[in-house]
Amino acid sequence: MRTLEEARSEMLAVIDPLGTAALPLVDAAGRVLAVDAAAVIDLPRFDNSAMDGYAVRAAEAGTGAKLQCIGEVPAGSEFDGELGDGQCARIFTGSPLPAGANAVVMQEDTRVDGSTVEITDGVKPFEHVRLRGEDVKAGECIGQAGMKLQAGQLQLLGAAGVAEVTVFRRPVIGVLATGDELCEPGTELGAGGIYESNRLALAALIRDAGAEPRVFPLVPDTMEATVDALKGAFAECDAVVTSGGVSVGEHDYVKSAFEQLGGSLEFWRVKIKPGKPFVFGRLGGKPLFGVPGNPVSAMVTFLVLVRPAILQMQGAADLDLPSHPGVLADPFANRGDRRHFMRVHADAAGNVYAAGLQASHAVGPLGKANGLVDVPPETSLAEGAPVKVLRFS
Ligand code: AMP
Ligand code: MG
Q1: Which of 4, 78, 104, 182 has its CA 20 to 30 A from that of 270?
Q2: Mutation test of ligand 1: which of 182, 200, 360 has the most ligand atoms closer than 8 Å to its C-beta?
């Protein structure tokens, strides 16, 4: 049986980013840059005021000085001319500094009488001035290939004059759920029926990972239905995630149906809890990720195995779940021989609570869990133990 690291690196070794496309920046939120992006302009683009006040020559603007205001520089304009001896100009935050000025006196430090401006608190050269290029220089690399474009990156690229970026294509990920017991929400449950929920969670996690989920109808536990469902999903999608049907029971058809379709099973079973029966295969270069049906197993295997693969399909440089240190508020014990990804709730202070019953069928804890703690085999962690929290929300 593979370790998690072996399974993960074996998958990542055969998964490549999909193609690239040029996109207007306005459509690029959440996408991954495929080509480095450079600043088109300096930021700030020109020396400008950090305050509403008066642009002055600092040498003349000591406390008590009286200056003549000769005009104003509203945002989006430029001062026509140059400040002369004893002159100042009304200026606003972000407006270009007039030629000849080298400082700004803030409005609160002046007394104004007609066009005479008395300085009540003098300034030094460059006080309240933002200098051209002090933030970003034109030509500077402001986005590396592999970087996911989120709010901050979009601010930077947009401000620096980048109108279009080259990003990786968003993979379409098929989502199938197998099981004769599964019923659609809102329908009446027959004997032994349960409401299907893995597709909901998997589609949400796929979207969080930057890809586009495509959810397919429920798949009954027959060879024929499983082959048909896989065939349809692989025809439409860049990869397929199935849930259920990967254990050892005689009603588990995912592996055999996939092979019947011509897919190659690369591995089955990973030494983790929950999620041991995870399957990875390939059909025509497209990955199959077979997660177990138990809802907690489905989510955990998605987070630690499928998510990095989907990010790599998008060319993302960072494949790991966000994480932070925390301190256990409850004792945790893993008596098994597989590392256990326990479901936890981490609060803002870093206290880490067990989210509830740590069993692979138990969905109760999923309502409040926001992270996982990887507890090694045969290990007890006492309350107060430092841990790393892998966050998924
Ligand atoms: P399986 O992996 O098919 O053996 O399923 C393991 C357990 O997970 C069984 O109790 C199933 O009823 C349950 N299960 C399987 N698929 C789903 C699903 N899509 N939604 C909720 N529970 C499921
Ligand atoms: Mg099943």
Answers
A1: 182
A2: 182
Q: Does ligand 1 lie within 6 Å of residue 177's CB atom?
A: yes
SS3 assignment, position 217 = coil
Ligand (nearest to CA of 218): 1
Chain segment 342-351, per-residue pLDDT in tens: 999 999 999 9
Give pTM, 2 decimals.
Answer: 0.94
Residue 271 CB contacts under 8 Å (≥ 6 apart), including other chains = 1, 2, 3, 4, 338, 339
Give the atom of ligand 1 at the shortest distance from the alpha carbon of 177.
19
- Measure the CA–CA gap between 263 and 55, rounded to whole angstroms: 72
Closest atom of ligand 1 to 249 CA is: 4
DSSP β-ladder status, 351-354 and 323-328: parallel
Q: Degrees (nearest 5) of the Cα angle 137, 44, 105?
A: 140
Give the integer Cα–Cα distance in Å for 187 and 200: 16
DSSP single-letter state for residue 46:
S
